Amino acid sequence: MATFGLFKQGKGKLAGSSNMTAAVLLVLVIAVVISLLSSRHYLRWDLTSTGEHSLSEKTLQVLRSIREPVSIKAFAQEDTQAADPVKKLLAAYAYAAPNIRYELIDPERNPGMATRYRITSLNTLLLEGFNRSQIVKIADEENLTNGLIRLSKSETEKIYWVTGHGERPFKGGSPESLSALREGFGGQNFEFEDLNLGQKDIPGDAALVVVAAPVKRLFPEEVDSLRKYLNKGGSLLVFLEPFAEGGLKEFLAEYGILTSGDIVVDKMSRVMGGDFLIPMVANYGVHEITKNFDLTSFFPIARSVEADPVRKKGVTLTSLAFTSTESWAETDRAALEQGRVALDERDREGPISLAVVAELEPTSEKTGDSEEGEKQDPARITGKGRMVVFGDVHFATDKYIHVSGNNDFITNALNYLVGREDFITIRKKLKPVDTLMLSRNQGLMLFAVPVVIVPILVLLLGTAVWYRRRSR
Questions:
Q1: Are residue 216 and residue 194 in the same domain, yes or no?
Q2: Does 194 share its domain with 327?
Q3: 126 Cβ contact partners less than 8 Å away, ≥ 6 residues apart
Q4: How far apart, in Å, are the Cα atoms of 462 and each of 413, 443, 449, 459?
Q5: What sign does the CA torsion over 441, 447, 451, 455 have?
Q6: How far is it, in rounded angstroms, from Cα 461 to Cα 297?
Q7: pLDDT of amino acid 303
Q8: 410-459, pLDDT tens digit by residue?
Q9: What contacts 25, CB < 8 A, 6 or more positions away?
Q10: Co-location of 217 and 351 in the same domain
Q11: What span, in angstroms and rounded, lies between the C-alpha atoms of 87 and 94?
Q12: Which residues of 192-204 are buried (b: 16+ CB within 10 A; e: fewer)?
């Protein structure tokens, strides 16, 4: 009986050991299966409150449109803290778009690769695909997404800058120039070139013509050149300054864009710590340029630019930016120069429109010889032209372009005018700052405990220990 009992007990231990072995093997099998599935079906979850590890919806739309393989070479120092954001960004792109592959190249360990591709700075991305390449010098979501868009668009387009009338230049280091605007678009398959309309007409390869706040009036022949270009389907960007139309007032009125001799005064800017001649814009019209745009823009020394309520045939007008209700269009230039302005019956109360976009539609089909038709009726619209008019140029200058939403606003307008609505601006996702607000009593307690009470307790305890030892 004892032997049978021992045999039974041993058999039970053997069965328990077998069950344990089977359980361990099952766990290992499950772990291997999960590992294989994760390598083939990689899943990510962004649990941060701001979504800082997620790509924007605009970027995802661009990635969904990429049908061909794209290779990204990231030149960054391996195993450094500066390279971590680049790795995370590229991993997010590769996860969202199976056609994208990336590799990190340390230029110090592979100087030949850096020399071959002419890479001169760290955290530079080289995009290859569509039988061409693009270099992205700033490794963030906005620049990488726009680099992918440029990669898929091979053509280089010309932007012509009208000169000869005191316009703001697009080159030079002056704070009043628009060189930062040109530099931002120079790496996006655009070429900028001066254009003197007194010497030649607008070239046929013009993707956009810019008239940047002329001081002197354009000649009628130059205005006719702009009219012909716009009516045939061209794109025109016009900046104006207060009390100076540059000879364009009647030309703009033909398309329903009204300008007046005024300057916008905004009390709200004074409240926010700015000058009363720096209107603040937080209210935007409904248009592709301002879609989902919620940044505040500032327009130093601006004038009104408004849409005519009487609809013009073949032209659709949209006001893009409005000042606050505390603003008005001041018409008394003499009072302004003397430093005393006040709202009176001659002025118009806000909100005041500071920018208008005009979209043209052909009014009739083209018949016969097009050049002969233009001579008979030069105002006839034969193409889908686009024109954006701003009542200020300062907001786009090097001095102010990076203030709040100014850069995003003018960038959106330019991309729309050249037909690149898919080019985007993406704001960086900032981690929220959690502040600790203490009442007066809580602040006193926070000071008293570590600075007063704790040192006194240590002193008393030390005195008690010393006295006790001394009494022995």
A1: yes
A2: yes
A3: 72, 73, 74, 75, 117, 119, 133, 134, 135, 136
A4: 73, 28, 18, 5
A5: positive
A6: 62
A7: 94
A8: 988 998 998 876 665 665 665 555 666 677 888 888 888 888 899 999 99
A9: none
A10: yes
A11: 10
A12: beebebeeeebee
Domain boundary among 134, 150, 166: 150
Q: How far apart are CA 306 and CA 321, in angstroms?
A: 10
As given in the structure block, the two tokens for residue 113 are 């690769």
Residue 108 structural domain:
57-150
- Residue 33 backbone phi and psi in degrees, to 5: -65, -45
The DSSP H or E segment spanning 236 is strand 235-239
- Bridge-based pairing of strands 327-330 and 315-322 is unpaired
As a whole number of angstroms, the distance between CA 15 and CA 347 comes to 98
Q: What is the DSSP string of 412-453?
A: HHHHHHTT-TT-------PPP-------HHHHHHHHHIIIII
Q: Rounded to whole angstroms, how far apart are CA atoms 143 and 145?
A: 6
Which DSSP string do the residues of 331-352 spell out, in sequence order?
--HHHHHTT-----TTSEESP-
Spatial separation of the C-alpha atoms in residues 5 and 92, rounded to whole Å: 64
Which candidate, 320, 298, 308, 294, places its Cα nearest to that of 238?
320
Alpha-carbon Rg for the chain, nearest whole angstrom, is: 33
DSSP 8-state code for residue 121: S
* 136 token code pair: 């992205």
Tell me the residue length of the chain. Answer: 472
Domain total of the chain: 3
Q: Is the peptide bond before 242 cis (omega within 30 degrees of 0)?
A: no
Residues 160 and 146 in one domain: no
Q: Cβ(356)–Cβ(237) under 8 Å?
A: no
Distance CA 321, CA 412 (A): 13
**pLDDT for position 12:** 57
List all residues 6 or more positions away from 431 whose beta carbon is below 8 Å from its beta carbon. Answer: 50, 52
> Which pTM value belongs to this model?
0.67
